[in-house]
Design brief:
This protein is α/β, with parallel strands linked by helices. The chain has 13 helices and twelve strands. The strands form three sheets. It has a six-stranded mixed β-sheet. A four-stranded antiparallel β-sheet has the order 8-9-7-10, covered by helices on one side. Strand 3, helix 4 and strand 4 form a beta-alpha-beta unit. The chain is elongated and about 90 Å long. The chain starts with a helix and ends in a 12-residue tail after the last helix. The structure holds zinc ion (ZN) (2 copies). One zinc ion binds next to loops.
Length: 436
């Protein structure tokens, strides 16, 4: 083993020890967030708890209510450069590598922390402490480093990271890390693009038996809308997803409904395809209004979720580090290809190179169930949560200590983004030539 490699191994071990030393306070942090589940954009107590956590730690500059009421930022930069000894070889003044860790902490209505976001907050805090501890004890680093923790609310509903991107909260970051609880360890699971839409039909009430001809039936419009979309499915690509509910269907059977409301989620594997599906869906919404004589309002949500831009360099490093810590990464093709949701971290990956691996928490329960909520608050999850934080810090150290890797991470990001952008402009749209 070369001297440089030995140093790296030692630093990784040191980060792990630091995280283990902090395990009591980290556990208490996630337990407090778990015990008081708060919905998207209302995570006030969780925000305050995290802000207090970093304020109690030495050396962090903490901005409460950063860009959003329930978001925060905590930053630390080694004095005079990469470590105790100053700027380190090859670094230029002002040339700082800014490493970000994200904390989520919103919960779900009715079932609390059933997505385990309390553990995401713990991973982010643990990784930030571990990396800081190592960096402040290094005499020289090839680069100067800043560690930034962002508290990002409203992942389950709304997309707080997308609001924060719009506000410039991710500006200046060179890499960004987070990890999400799951039922298995995986460096990546498919995360698709999504846009949510609300459709409102306005008709006219009338007595449904005495003067039905005087009414304009908004429920008929809602039913046609639902059926139009069901008919559209045959012409949809197999990996597109459209799913919705009728939120309001009328008041009473003897009143022709004058108002109905539906909510749909539209998803495609890449953000380049989403406008195609949206246009088709919109024709379904509007034609239902035309057929029934209703007025229609089509309201797309403020934030559109992008698919995840993968970074193979970061994924490879994370997998190697995770395996060294005993992680058993899933090889189940069904899980790796088909398990798809959406996350606002997708939008982040189009702005900054990053990874969003998934981690086992000691339970086979599925996310968004009461069983998973229980598992996310169970002591058993702690070992796996801290192990994940260690693997993230080890990955960050790999990149920070080997500048050629940072270059590779950035180059892959640029190339992947370019490829997606080309898809957006249709330059590389592939048409199926299958005519059988
Ligand atoms: Zn979730
Ligand atoms: Zn989640």
């Amino acid at each position: 083993m070369s001297g440089g490699a030995e140093v790296l191994v030692e630093l990784k071990q040191r980060a792990g020890c630091c995280i283990d030393e902090a395990k009591a306070k980290l556990h208490s942090l996630s337990k407090d967030i778990w015990s008081c589940p708060e919905l998207a954009y209302e995570e006030r107590k969780s925000h305050d708890r995290l802000v207090a956590f970093f304020r109690q730690e030495e050396g962090w500059k903490v901005d409460a209510h950063f860009k959003l009421d329930t978001a925060f930022r905590a930053t630390w930069r080694a004095e005079g450069g990469g470590g105790r000894g100053g700027g380190g070889r090859g670094s230029e003044p002002g040339d700082v590598v800014n490493v970000g860790f994200l904390c989520e902490y919103d919960a779900l209505p009715g079932i609390g922390h059933a997505c385990g976001h309390n553990l995401i907050a713990e991973v982010g805090a643990a990784a930030a402490l571990g990396l800081k501890d190592v960096l402040e004890n290094i005499c020289s680093l090839p680069v100067r480093v800043q560690v930034t923790v962002l508290g990002t609310p409203a992942e389950e509903d709304g997309g707080g990271k997308i609001d924060m991107l719009r506000e410039g909260a991710f500006k200046g970051l060179d890499m960004v890390f987070m990890a999400h609880p799951s039922k298995e360890d995986a460096t990546y699971l498919p995360c698709v693009a999504e846009h949510d839409v609300t459709i409102k039909y306005h008709g006219k009430t009338s007595h449904a038996s005495a003067y039905p001809w005087e009414g304009i039936n908004a429920l008929d419009a809602a039913v046609l809308c639902y059926n139009n979309l069901s008919v559209l499915r045959q012409q949809m690509k197999p990996d597109w997803r459209v799913h919705g509910i009728i939120k309001h269907g009328g008041e009473k059977p003897n009143i022709i409904p004058s108002y109905t409301e539906l909510e749909y989620y539209l998803r495609t594997p890449s953000r380049a395809e989403l406008p195609v599906l949206k246009a088709k869906a919109e024709m379904c919404f509007r034609s239902a209004a035309m057929a029934t004589g209703c007025e229609v309002e089509v309201q797309f949500a403020r934030n559109q979720f992008d698919n995840m831009l993968r970074n193979a360099a970061l994924e490879e490093l994370y997998e190697r580090n995770g395996k060294a810590l005993g992680m058993d990464f899933t090889v189940d093709e069904d899980v790796l290809k088909n398990e798809s949701g959406s996350t606002d971290f997708g939008n982040v990956t189009f702005a900054v190179p990053g990874i969003h691996p998934y981690f086992y928490i000691g339970s086979n329960a599925l996310n968004h169930t009461e069983e998973y909520c229980h598992a996310a608050g169970d002591d058993r999850a702690q070992f796996y949560t801290l192990r994940t934080a260690k693997a993230l810090v080890m990955t960050a150290l790999d990149v920070l200590l080997r500048p050629e890797l940072l270059q590779r991470v950035k180059q892959e990001f640029t190339e992947a983004k370019l490829k997606e952008d080309r898809n957006m402009t249709g330059e590389h749209t592939e048409q199926s030539a299958n005519s059988c």
